[in-house]
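Running co-folding for iron/sulfur cluster.
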Amino acid sequence: MNQKWPTGSRNQEDLKNLAGNPDLISGIYNYCDRWCQRCPFTSRCMVFAMEEQQFDNPTAHDLNSEAFWQTISDSLQATLEMLQEMAEEQGIDLDLLDVEADMEEQRRLEEETRNHACARAAEAYAETVDAWFDSVKDLFVEKEDELNLRVRVNILGDDPHEEAASIEDAVEVIRWYQHQIHVKLFRALHGALEERPAILEDFPKDSDGSAKVALSAMDCSIAAWGELYRHFPMAEDDILDILVHLDRLRRATEQEFPDARAFVRPGFDEVEL
Ligand code: SF4
C-alpha cells in the first residue's frame, strides 16, 4: 500500500516531525470516514493533529488575514516538496508532460466510472435521501410534538428521551454518509480502472480500501434507516424502498470488490480498542 501524505500542513518539517511520532498510526486517515467527532483514533491520527494545530490559530481560517494565505502558501510548498521526493523515489519524471493524452485518459476513466451501475445507484441514493427528508418534514414535527407530550405525561417505563436520541443519531448517520457512499465508491471504481494493469496480485489495493469505507458507510446507513423504520411506521413503505436500494448497492459493491471486506485498514482493522 502506498503511503499517501495528508495535505494542509504548514511546512514539510512539521509533516516530518508528526510522521516521526511513534504514537501515530501511519496512513490511518486514508481509509476513514472523516467523522473525527466520533473517531476513537483522534490521538493517533496525523490529519487530526494537523487540523488541531491549525485551529489553534484562528487567523489561519480568515480569508482576509495574512496568516490564512501564508498557511496556503506553506501547504502548497510542503506538498510540492513532498511530491518531488516521492516522484524521485518512484522514478516518476514530473517534467515529462503529455497534457492532452493524460487529460483524455482521465476524461475516459471518469466517464466510465460515472456510468458504472454502482456509481449511478450511489448517486441516486444521495438524491433520494434529500427527497425523503424534504417530504417528511411534517412527520418530524409531529414526532417532536408526540415526544414532548410523552415527556410531560411521564408514563412509567416510557423513555421518550431515548427515542429522541435514537432518531437524532440515525438522522446524523444517514446525513453523514449520504454523499460519502458515492464519493468513496467513485474513488474505488476509478482507482480499480487505473490499477488494472499496474497492481500486482496479492498486493492490497487502494480501490478495495475505498470500497471498504463505502461498504462500512452503507452498513451504518442501513442500520440507521432501520432505526427510522422503527420510529416512523407511517413512512415504512418509503423507508423500505430506500433500504432495498441500499442493500442492493451493498451487494453489488461486494460483487465488484470481492476483497474489499478483507482489506485491512490501518488502525481500524488492526488495533484493539
Ligand atoms: S482517522 Fe479519525 S481522526 Fe483521523 S481523519 Fe479519520 S476520522 Fe478523523
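Result summary
Residues 206-231 form the longest helix (26 residues).
The chain has two domains: 12-89, 106-256.
Job closed.
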